[in-house]
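Render this sequence as a predicted structure.
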Amino acid sequence: MPVIEIRRNKRTNPKSTYLREFASDVTSQYGEDGIIAKILDLIGTKNKWCVEFGAWDGKYLSNTWNLINNKGWNAVLVEGETTRADRLAGTHKSRKGEVFVENAFVGWEGEHSLDNILGRTPIPMDFDVLVYRY
């Protein structure tokens, strides 16, 4: 009887995956918190502003929660579902003028374009981090 053996080959170049060794989660899902921290260590920051759309409650699987709550960053958090956006705004009410919650679905054009949503806030044009969650 023949024996079937599975031999997995690594097809990725280790140079292209070295950021994986910095993976760690505060609230992120797949180690993004640690990877983002390492990238920011390497490239630096300009103004410590971040954007996350599809923000949910601002914490669940968030890639910006650590920056906002542990590192003191300013943020624009965009959530299309009204109940979640209201809770999100309540969570950050003590950071008025620093964390801006927009109840909107991001679209390609018109008032729902990302440019127009961000234009309603004081976020600088050269903010540091943009996260899209679907």
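Summary. The radius of gyration is 18 Å. The mean pLDDT is 94.
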